[in-house]
Amino acid sequence: MREAIPKLYIVIPCYNEEEILEQSLDILSDKIKRLVSEKKAAEGSRVVCVDDGSKDATWDVIVRRAEKDSQVLGFKFSRNYGHQNAILAGMLESRKAADCVVTIDADLQQDIEAMDDFLARYMEGCDVVYGIRNDRNTDKAGKKFTAEAFYKMMRLMGADIIPNSADYRLLSKKALEALADHPESNLFLRGLIPTMGFKSGVVYFDVKDRTGGQSKYTLKKMLSLALNGVTSMSTRPLELIIVLGLLFCLMALVIFILSMIDWARGVVVQGWTTTVALLCLIGGMNLLTNGIVGLYVGKSYIEAKRRPRYIIDHAIWDGDGTVDDSGSDSERNFRGGDGS
Prior knowledge:
With 340 residues, the chain is α/β, with parallel strands linked by helices. The protein has two domains: 8-140 and 164-224 and 308-333, Spore Coat Polysaccharide Biosynthesis Protein SpsA, Chain A, CATH 3.90.550.10; 236-305. The chain is 49% helix and 14% strand. The protein contains eleven helices and eight strands. The protein has an eight-stranded mixed sheet, with helices on both faces.
């Protein structure tokens, strides 16, 4: 159990959210004021916007809002580094001042009233609180099918992922410090965070229809997230290659025996179609398995480079709306490593 009221930072990854961001910040600002007045969050709780290299006026919206509202902080990536890196950056930078951090999407489709339950679980001693969707009734049929298939595939491939969990979660300072010790570039936070083993809880929430703009998670990005999740959290595909190889060796042995029998009987033309089909199948599987192995090798190559996971170009971190774009300070304080 915890007794001290926590200072809460709400992290919002933003990519081309000009259309809805101002409204979302109004809602979150009011929410923080209510949490403070109800003594569920401490004075100094803030909203942190992470501009993931937007091509519209998202950063201008953040700057204007920060100039008139000290609750709003933010920083802008030098380019687009991806949704997972934007979430990570917001959490790692926020841990310097916050007792706990909640991440939520800019469209606020997740029910913000669930934050009360997040904080209640935190006060009960949980260092990680997962937000889990009650249902997927607001999803279109295609997205609902792909989402359910995604979680089933991840579990099948050995990734320790909670079904229907989202990037709507709470992490304590202790959990954030532990997360900072994970230096990998290939991020899949939904699979990585459960591996840390801290005391955790769950909060169920409803999802609303999007009030403006368009979802940034296209089918291509969803497939990329799934592929990255499998290869960064599990070696099951490599294990499946071994099983597949053994099956093909057994099949080849059977074909060899049948071929010897046909040769002994003087039948040399029969089975030509089977042989060609089998060669094509084996060739295709060989290319596929080499591709899977190559994918893991490529990821190891990227990790070995130790490049920063993100670089912050501009930052508003003092609560006065001042934009810090000085090269030395930004490079020293706002590079994606351990956040220190």
